[in-house]
Amino acid sequence: MTQEQFARYSFLLDRTARKVKQYAQQQFKSGDFDVTVDQWLVLKNLSENGHLSQTELANLVFKDHPTLTRILDLLCKKGYVERVPHPMDRRSFQLHLTETGLAKVSALRPQILEIREKAWENLSDSDFQEFKRILDTIYQNLGGQELE
Amino acid sequence: MTQEQFARYSFLLDRTARKVKQYAQQQFKSGDFDVTVDQWLVLKNLSENGHLSQTELANLVFKDHPTLTRILDLLCKKGYVERVPHPMDRRSFQLHLTETGLAKVSALRPQILEIREKAWENLSDSDFQEFKRILDTIYQNLGGQELE
DNA sequence: TACCAATAATTAGTATGACAAATATATAAA
DNA sequence: TTTATATATTTGTCATACTAATTATTGGTA
């Protein structure tokens, strides 16, 4: 395999990642989910972890701080999330879902799992293991930190 | 494997694609390449295909038309690309690289191949085949067209 | 010819992503 | 205590993505 052919991994990766996000976003839209794909990622992580600061949440979802600030602005405006002042540290906030936010997560979770399945048709569990291994290797090659 | 674990493919994919682009962009910047990663993709495809229209180019690089319009605006402003009116169809342009653009592609191509190699450390040719197979399957599952 | 649908490109609006810089607050060091 | 440094978050800027709408032009057809 030539170096040229091989270097297409970056193109294929980018193209597929965009397609996956685009597909999900279209389904979100046609189902009137009222959140974007990235907003959902934030909501989901908040529902699974209580009282995170923005920095902690940013590390969980691998988004940088400015991006997360803006996503949270939107989620607060929609009434799904609240920024509660941290009792000991006036620089930071504790994030938590509102009642509406909790209800939204419960309502959307099963529907979104279903949407996510579509991409994996014709692929197996062992394909997933391979896929994860390769993606994680690339991520670490480029200086990313391991997950847990 | 639970449905939940499996659905993380979208998270891993997005995270890795962003890391790959970010890494390349940092190298581009430290090397004073004067183009972004996406602008490079456009220049590269123009150098390999003469006299494309914007629609044809958009299909090659899998970007939508508004995005491509803006990338071309920047590349024209930088003097690497020119929009030449199509002789038979006044709606469209034929795109071509300027002398400067051609020189830029020649200068950058080998350096960029080198940058791209970093991600693939510890991975093999057969990993690449697996990776490509899985990415292409996902892409087609979500309604994307096959390549050639 | 006149009309109508399709096509090429652009514009507008919103969201995300990367990076740099600014602000406020906390903590450690002199 | 004063100063310096570090941390949490926000703001600003530019580039990319997606959608919808707009403009100009083409081609087919009544």
Report on this structure:
- The structure is a homodimer of 148-residue chains.
- With 148 residues, chain A is mainly α.
- Chain A is built from 7 helices and 2 strands.
- Chain A has a two-stranded antiparallel sheet with strand order 1-2.
- In chain A, β1 and β2 form a beta hairpin.
- The interface between A and B is large, with 50 and 50 residues.
- The first copy, chain A, binds a DNA duplex (30 and 30 nucleotides) through residues 18, 21-22, 25-26, 29, 36, 38-39, 53-55, 63-71, 74, 86, 89-93.
The counted number of beta strands of chain A is: 2
Number of helices of chain A: 7
Give the C-alpha Rg of chain A: 18 Å
- Please give the share of residues in helix of chain A: 55-70%
Major sheet of chain A: order of its strands? 1-2
What proportion of the residues of chain A form beta strands (DSSP E)?
5-15%
Please name the CATH topology of chain A.
Arc Repressor Mutant, subunit A
Label the overall shape of chain A.
globular
CATH H-level superfamily of chain A: Winged helix-like DNA-binding domain superfamily/Winged helix DNA-binding domain
Give average pLDDT of chain A, whole number.
93
State the largest interface: A-B, 50 and 50 residues
CATH class assignment of chain A: Mainly Alpha
Oligomeric assembly: homodimer
Into how many domains do the coordinates of chain A divide?
1
For the largest beta-sheet of chain A, the strand count, sense and barrel status come to: 2 strands, antiparallel
H and E order of chain A = HHHHHEEHH
Structural class given helices, strands, pairing of chain A? mainly alpha
CATH architecture of chain A: Orthogonal Bundle
Poorly predicted spans of chain A:
none
Taking the alpha carbons of the first and last residues of chain A, their distance comes to 34 Å
